[in-house]
C-alpha cells in the first residue's frame, strides 16, 4: 500500500510529501497505538506496551489475538503471526 512516509515527521522530498510502500509503517503504528488514539476509529490500536512486560502465556495469547484482530480491521491478511519473542514479533501477510 502506498502512503505518506513518516520519520519523526512527514518526510518531504523536493517540496512534496514522500509517498512510498508503507505497509511496515502502518503495522508499526497499529501496534504502538492505544485504543482511543484515533478519534474517528476509537477501537483501533493494539497498545503493545502494556503486553511487553507481562511474562505469562495468557498475555501473549491475548496479544496475538489482538494483533490479528486489529490487522484484520485494517484489511491486512495475516498468513502467520509469531509473538513468542516480544522483541522480534513476526508478522507475515499482505494488504
Automatic annotation (TrEMBL):
Domain of life: Bacteria
Protein name: Oxidase
